[in-house]
Design a protein that fits this description.
The chain contains 3 helices and 37 strands. The chain is mainly beta and about 500 residues long. It has a 5-stranded antiparallel beta sheet with strand order 26-27-28-29-30, with helices on one face. Strands 1-37-36-35 form a 4-stranded antiparallel beta sheet, with no helix packed on it. A 4-stranded antiparallel beta sheet has the order 2-3-4-7, with no helix packed on it. Strand 14 and strand 15 form a beta hairpin. It is globular.
């Protein structure tokens, strides 16, 4: 069954929606918002909002952090604290680094990982405390960037650890928390690193401001149980190579991967060619308790995009993956940003993928409007993933003409229950490129059953950038946080949408 959540339906319902069940509050900082995170700084069950932002332009750009209090009746509109992050900070994470039940801000620097610990008054300690002192590859902070980076991970035997890119360059080092903010080295992990070298001598006609550029790309990682033993294994993805470190009964990981496999999705020419991307992710699509592997390759420019998707099921008995993929999808057009997500709440991960066939007419519309209508196809896994989608959701995304594989705007959010009826609802975005009479728009569609959605709320905004779920405390309905780092007029805004209930009934 195919059900369309169309733009025309959105337009017909705009007048009747009003503000609806979402109450909007605007938080502001005097700079460019980089990231928004939430965390319970004082341990009272309410999650404060942490807004990371940049003040000024290079070379005087500085990293700041504003703490906005969470209250039972709503979000505090003024920060209770504004902190300047140390100039040595390269990246940050948010989590309970010292195990006291309060969230901290963790800072990655050249000499290790430091913490701004949460305090009982709902603020952060302003003097950093060292959690791990070690030489890292993060030796040179960017003059205008201090991005989020995942450092803190749960350990399989309970407790937590820090995963740090250390020197010598190549391995990552896992540090285990031993209590009271004390970390000890647990294991050096040989992860599949990629190194790229560019020199000015390669093309003397090019304008290079360097003699040589060395770039080291650490693999993206994910925690998922691959062998079905109930413990979370560490997966590392580098193009079409997967390395898995299986969790041990003692709560640690081995130094060498238990599974290291190259799946051969890239040809020899593609391995040295720019514009070819492979992204891997793990998810349990058949409900057997073992995470499976999805690999998606995208290549080409706007006129000749092509996507190749492969799903490999995990073998029983800890035997890695099946030799042949259980699902093969080769399509022309835009097919990046594929996700495994449990759409219907049955405990099995479903497949969400965009599918846009490119052609002369499509390219013309992109050039004229700066956006692209994108149908997202949903393949449900309840009866096994099949070639044909079960239903589709119509959205539109802004196009970055400088990168054929990158789109702006709100991607579908299909794993949240907004009205509390136990079913997963949908948040969809519609790009208007944020100008004139065509603003961007997000809408929440309530689910009545698989593939059947009814719009219940919508919001126009100047340009959609980052939309994420937010609950100020456990047990309350899901709300939203929206921020606009690249929108000139609103780059210092954070919109907090609190879910007040009162949603309409759906058939």
């Amino acid at each position: 069954m195919i059900v369309w959540a169309s733009w025309s339906l959105v337009c017909l319902m705009v007048a009747a929606l009003g503000s609806g069940p979402m109450q909007k509050e605007i938080l502001r900082v005097p700079g460019r918002v980089v990231h928004v995170a939430d965390g319970d700084l004082d341990g009272d069950g309410l999650r404060e909002l942490l807004v990371f932002w940049r003040q000024g332009l290079p070379p005087r750009s500085r990293a700041r952090l504003s703490v906005f209090p969470a209250r039972a009746e709503g979000q505090g509109s003024k920060p209770v604290q504004v902190i300047s992050l140390p100039e040595s900070t390269v990246a940050f994470d948010v989590g309970d680094g010292d195990g006291d039940g309060r969230a901290d801000v963790l800072l990655l620097a050249a000499d290790g990982v430091w913490s701004l610990s949460g305090q009982v008054d709902g603020k952060l300690r302003t003097e950093p405390k060292a959690l791990v002192k070690v030489m890292t590859v993060a030796a040179f902070p960017h003059e205008d960037r201090c991005p989020p980076m995942r450092l803190l991970i749960p350990l399989p035997g309970g407790g937590q650890g820090l995963l740090v890119p250390t020197v010598p360059i190549g391995p990552m080092t896992l540090y285990a928390h031993r209590g009271r903010g004390v970390y000890e080295m647990a294991q050096v992990l040989r992860v599949p690193l990629r190194a790229n070298l560019y020199t000015a001598e390669e093309d003397r006609r090019a304008v290079r401001d360097f003699s040589a550029s060395f770039r080291f790309s650490y693999p993206r990682f994910q925690l998922a149980d691959q062998d079905g033993d109930g413990r979370q294994d560490l997966w590392f993805f580098r193009e079409d190579v997967v390395a898995i470190f299986r969790a041990r009964k003692n709560g640690g990981y081995p130094g060498e991967p238990d599974i290291y496999r190259a799946f051969g999705l890239l040809t020899g020419k593609e391995r040295v060619k720019h514009g070819v991307y492979v992204r891997g992710q793990a998810g349990d699509v058949n409900g057997d308790g073992r995470a499976d592997l999805l690999l998606n390759k995208n290549r080409g420019g706007i006129a000749n995009m092509r996507s190749s998707l492969r799903l490999f099921l995990s073998r029983s008995g800890g035997g890695g993956f099946e030799e042949k993929p259980a699902l093969v999808l080769d399509t022309d057009g835009y097919g990046a940003s594929v996700k495994l997500v449990d759409v219907n709440g049955d405990g099995k991960d479903d497949l969400l993928r965009p599918a846009v066939e490119m052609g002369v007419m499509v390219i013309s519309r992109i050039l004229l409007s700066g956006k692209l209508d994108v149908p997202f196809l949903v393949h449900l896994s309840k009866d096994g993933l099949k070639q044909r989608e079960d239903f589709r959701l119509e959205t539109s995304l802004g196009v970055n003409l400088h990168s054929a594989q990158e789109m702006s705007g709100s991607y579908p959010m299909l794993d949240q229950d907004f009205n509390g009826d136990g079913r997963r609802d949908a948040l969809l975005g519609y790009s208007g490129q944020g100008s004139g009479k065509q603003p961007d728009r997000i809408a929440i569609l309530l689910s009545s059953r698989d593939g059947v959605y009814q719009e219940a709320w919508g919001l126009n905004l100047s340009a959609t950038r980052f939309v994420q779920p937010y609950r100020p405390k456990a047990g309350v309905p899901t709300g939203l946080v929206i921020y606009f780092p690249m929108v000139e007029g609103q780059r210092g805004d954070v919109w907090v949408l609190t879910n007040r209930g009162g949603w309409p009934s759906v058939n």
